[in-house]
């Protein structure tokens, strides 16, 4: 039995396509509002009559002042959320879990490495660093996707070029693709990385995070300055049911964002 508090009603203020199977939805409270979210924290979103799923916030303040979540249609609940249109309503509870430790990144170069829809939980980090450039060093953003059609936030990524170093790679290029081809870790060779002055934030498929984290440590980053965002079956969102347990960690409570030094011997040994 779930221990998640009853969700609060939220209305869809806006919804738009990111890719063929991914949409972003902006949610505004109908009445009572949830406490503020930090970059990397997640909400439990309830699709009435279907069920609920955990989704990290992909923007803390949208065009209408609401929370934005980016959802890929991969199951019954996420498909129901994908079909939402402005005016529809959902239930929302949260914020849950740990966010990206931006205090630890203050004064350091910030390296964002995202694979696929893993860019969604990292997008608020990019917003934060771009909004407060005096508090951080150089910003580099590495993005990987299966194909050009699978890239989320394409127009926004282009807007990040200039204030940030942005590199994008795809596994399978399509007609007219002029960018890099290959896994996202190959983009690390393009950077003038300063290991002793860099904090890395990584989100994507687990195999991608494993190789990225190991590569960064090999290049000289200390493990605790490499943060990863992990997902398991977040059922209760409060650390009581144990569905999201990873060794001694309950990821809905102790994560989803954790330092690589805490999980190198647990998760990033092999895929589970």
UniProtKB/TrEMBL annotation:
<dbReference type="GO" id="GO:0051537">
    <property type="term" value="F:2 iron, 2 sulfur cluster binding"/>
</dbReference>
<dbReference type="InterPro" id="IPR017938">
    <property type="entry name" value="Riboflavin_synthase-like_b-brl"/>
</dbReference>
<dbReference type="InterPro" id="IPR019480">
    <property type="entry name" value="Dihydroorotate_DH_Fe-S-bd"/>
</dbReference>
<dbReference type="InterPro" id="IPR017927">
    <property type="entry name" value="FAD-bd_FR_type"/>
</dbReference>
<keyword id="KW-0408">Iron</keyword>
<keyword id="KW-0479">Metal-binding</keyword>
<protein>
    <submittedName>
        <fullName>Oxidoreductase</fullName>
    </submittedName>
</protein>
<dbReference type="GO" id="GO:0006221">
    <property type="term" value="P:pyrimidine nucleotide biosynthetic process"/>
</dbReference>
<dbReference type="InterPro" id="IPR001433">
    <property type="entry name" value="OxRdtase_FAD/NAD-bd"/>
</dbReference>
<dbReference type="InterPro" id="IPR039261">
    <property type="entry name" value="FNR_nucleotide-bd"/>
</dbReference>
<feature type="binding site">
    <location>
        <position position="244"/>
    </location>
    <ligand>
        <name>[2Fe-2S] cluster</name>
    </ligand>
</feature>
<dbReference type="InterPro" id="IPR001709">
    <property type="entry name" value="Flavoprot_Pyr_Nucl_cyt_Rdtase"/>
</dbReference>
<dbReference type="Pfam" id="PF10418">
    <property type="entry name" value="DHODB_Fe-S_bind"/>
</dbReference>
<dbReference type="InterPro" id="IPR012165">
    <property type="entry name" value="Cyt_c3_hydrogenase_gsu"/>
</dbReference>
<dbReference type="InterPro" id="IPR050353">
    <property type="entry name" value="PyrK_electron_transfer"/>
</dbReference>
<feature type="domain" description="FAD-binding FR-type">
    <location>
        <begin position="5"/>
        <end position="102"/>
    </location>
</feature>
<feature type="binding site">
    <location>
        <position position="252"/>
    </location>
    <ligand>
        <name>[2Fe-2S] cluster</name>
    </ligand>
</feature>
<feature type="binding site">
    <location>
        <position position="236"/>
    </location>
    <ligand>
        <name>[2Fe-2S] cluster</name>
    </ligand>
</feature>
<dbReference type="Pfam" id="PF00175">
    <property type="entry name" value="NAD_binding_1"/>
</dbReference>
<keyword id="KW-0001">2Fe-2S</keyword>
<keyword id="KW-0411">Iron-sulfur</keyword>
<dbReference type="GO" id="GO:0050660">
    <property type="term" value="F:flavin adenine dinucleotide binding"/>
</dbReference>
<dbReference type="GO" id="GO:0046872">
    <property type="term" value="F:metal ion binding"/>
</dbReference>
<feature type="binding site">
    <location>
        <position position="241"/>
    </location>
    <ligand>
        <name>[2Fe-2S] cluster</name>
    </ligand>
</feature>
<dbReference type="GO" id="GO:0016491">
    <property type="term" value="F:oxidoreductase activity"/>
</dbReference>
């Amino acid at each position: 039995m779930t221990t998640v508090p009853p969700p609060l009603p939220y209305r869809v203020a806006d919804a738009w396509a990111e890719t063929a199977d991914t949409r972003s939805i902006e949610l505004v409270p109908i009445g009572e509002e949830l406490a503020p979210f930090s970059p990397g924290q997640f909400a439990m979103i309830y699709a009435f009559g279907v069920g609920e799923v955990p989704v990290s916030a992909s923007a803390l303040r949208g065009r209408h002042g609401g929370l934005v979540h980016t959802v890929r249609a991969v199951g019954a609940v996420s498909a129901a959320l994908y079909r939402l249109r402005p005016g529809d309503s959902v239930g929302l509870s949260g914020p849950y879990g740990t966010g990206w430790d931006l205090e630890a990144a203050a004064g350091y170069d910030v390296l964002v490495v995202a694979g696929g829809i893993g860019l969604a939980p990292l997008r608020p980090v990019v917003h934060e660093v771009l909004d407060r450039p005096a508090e951080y060093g150089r910003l580099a953003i590495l993005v990987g996707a299966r194909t050009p059609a699978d890239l989320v936030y394409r127009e926004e990524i282009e807007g990040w070029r200039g204030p940030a170093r942005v590199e994008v790679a795809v596994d399978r290029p399509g007609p007219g693709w002029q960018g890099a081809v290959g896994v996202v870790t190959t983009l690390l060779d393009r950077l003038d990385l300063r290991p002793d002055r860099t904090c890395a934030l990584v989100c994507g498929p687990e195999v991608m995070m494993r190789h990225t984290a190991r590569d960064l440590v090999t290049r000289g980053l200390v493990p605790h300055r490499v943060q990863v965002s992990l997902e398991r079956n977040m059922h209760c969102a409060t650390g009581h049911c144990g569905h999201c347990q990873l060794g001694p960690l309950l990821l809905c409570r102790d994560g989803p964002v954790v330092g690589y030094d805490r999980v190198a011997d647990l998760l990033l040994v092999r895929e589970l």
